[in-house]
Amino acid sequence: MWPWGLIAFRRVGHRLLAAKKDVDARDGRAPDVERPARCRYSKSMSPKSALKAKSEPGQSETVSRPIALLAWYDRHRRRLPWRAAPGETSDPYRVWLSEIMLQQTTVKAVGPYFEKFVARWPEVTALGNASQDDVLRMWAGLGYYSRARNLHACAVAVTRQHGGVFPDTEEGLRALPGIGPYTAAAIAAIAFDRHTMPVDGNIERVVSRLFAVEEELPQAKPLIQQLAATLLANSRAGDSAQALMDLGASICTPKKPACSLCPLNEDCKARTLGTQETFPRKAPKKGGALRRGAAFVVTRGDELLVRSRPEKGLLGGMTEVPGSNWLAGQEDATARQQAPDLKGLSRWQRKVGVVNHVFTHFPLELVVYTAKAQPRTRAPAGMRWVPIATLADEALPNVMRKVIAHALNLPSGPSS
Ligand code: SF4
C-alpha cells in the first residue's frame, strides 16, 4: 500500500489537489486552506525564523503542510480500538481512557487493556461507580499505578460533578484528576475538535526533524510546541494531531525513518541535511543509582503472605510480598534483617540469583528469600494470606510478579 501512497505524493501539485479533494469530501466543509500556495518557508530558515515568518500577517509559509498531512492521514491512518472511524464522532470516554493508558505505554500493550476496560465499564459513569480495587486489579500489569488511581478518581469526578459528561475545553479537562496539559490538549483536539496541538513523543520527533530544532529537550519543548501548532489545519484539529502521531509512529520512526514515504519530505530540514536520526536533540540522561533490597516469600500450604503498599508513593496501593526498603548500596545482611516475624516459621532459604527490575528513575535488584509457615499461622499486622490460585486477581505490579515467579519456580521468572 505504501508505494501507491508514495506515487500519489510525488508531485506537490498532485498532492495538494488530492488533499483538497479529500478534505472537501471527508467532512463536507470548506478546505482548511483557501489557496494551497507554495511555501515561502525556506529550508535554510532557523526554527525561530520560521515561526516568526508564520506569525507575520499575510505570510502563509506552512499552509501546504496541514493539508498534505490530512491527505496522508485520510489514506494511511491507523485503525485503533479507541479511534472513531471516518465520519463517526469521537467518544470522549474512549479518547480519555486511551490517552491515560498510553502514557508511557505502547499502543500494542494498551490494546487488550483498553478492550477489557470498555467491555466491563462501557461508559465513564460505570467506571466512576466501580471500586478502586477493581480498577487497580484490571490495570495490573500496565505499570505506573498512580495513573490507575487517577483514572478512577477522574471517572468519579466526571460522574458526580459533571453528570457523566466530560468538559469540552482544555481548562475544564485540566481541572480533573490525572489530566495534565498534554492529555487535556489531546482530548480537547481529538474528542472535541478544539484548535490545539497536543505534543507527544512522536510529534516531538517529527517536528524537531522537520524544523531541525537544535535546542535540546526538555528545554526545546516550548519551541516545539509552537512549531507543532503551525501544522494544525484550520478545521479537523483532532485529525491533524492524530496524523502527526501516526506519522511519527509509522514513518518518522526513531531509527531509519522512511522519508521517501513521508508527505512532508519536501519541506523537511533534517532530511535535507541527512541528519534525521540525530533529532530530537536530548540532554544526556542521569540514570538513577541501583537500589537493592530483599523480598520475603512466605507460603502457608497453598497460600501466600502479602500486604498492600501505602496509598501514596511508588506502586501506591498495589499488592506485594513483605520486603525490605530499597536503598542504593544496601548490604544483603541489612535487607535480610527486615524479614517479617512469624511464629513457627521454617528457616529462610535464599533463592539463587536475583530479580532485576527497572523503574523510571532507578534500577532495582532484589534478593529473594522463601520460608514455610505452619498451618493456621496468623498473618502479622497489616498482612494477609491469599490463595496462590487467586493471585491473578490481586493488583500485583510486574516487579512482584517476577519475585513470586522466581520464588515459586513459576514460568516467566526473573533475570538473574
Ligand atoms: S522527511 Fe523523514 S525526517 Fe522529515 S518528517 Fe518526514 S519522515 Fe521525518
TrEMBL record:
Transmembrane intervals: none
Class of this enzyme: hydrolase
Cofactor(s) for this UniProt protein: [4Fe-4S] cluster
EC assignment: 3.2.2.31
Cofactor note: Binds 1 [4Fe-4S] cluster.
Domain of life per record: Bacteria
Catalytic activity: Hydrolyzes free adenine bases from 7,8-dihydro-8-oxoguanine:adenine mismatched double-stranded DNA, leaving an apurinic site
Claim: Iron is one of the keywords in the record: yes
InterPro entries reported in the protein's UniProt record: A/G_AdeGlyc_MutY, DNA_glycosylase, Endonuclease-III-like_CS2, Endonuclease3_FeS-loop_motif, Endouclease-III_FeS-bd_BS, HhH-GPD_domain, HhH_base_excis_C, HhH_motif
Region Disordered: start-end pairs: 23-60
Ranges where the HhH-GPD domain occurs: 101-250
Alphabetical keyword list: 4Fe-4S, DNA damage, DNA repair, Glycosidase, Hydrolase, Iron, Iron-sulfur, Metal-binding
Role according to the record: Adenine glycosylase active on G-A mispairs. MutY also corrects error-prone DNA synthesis past GO lesions which are due to the oxidatively damaged form of guanine: 7,8-dihydro-8-oxoguanine (8-oxo-dGTP).
Protein name per UniProt: Adenine DNA glycosylase
Protein species of origin: Bradyrhizobium guangdongense
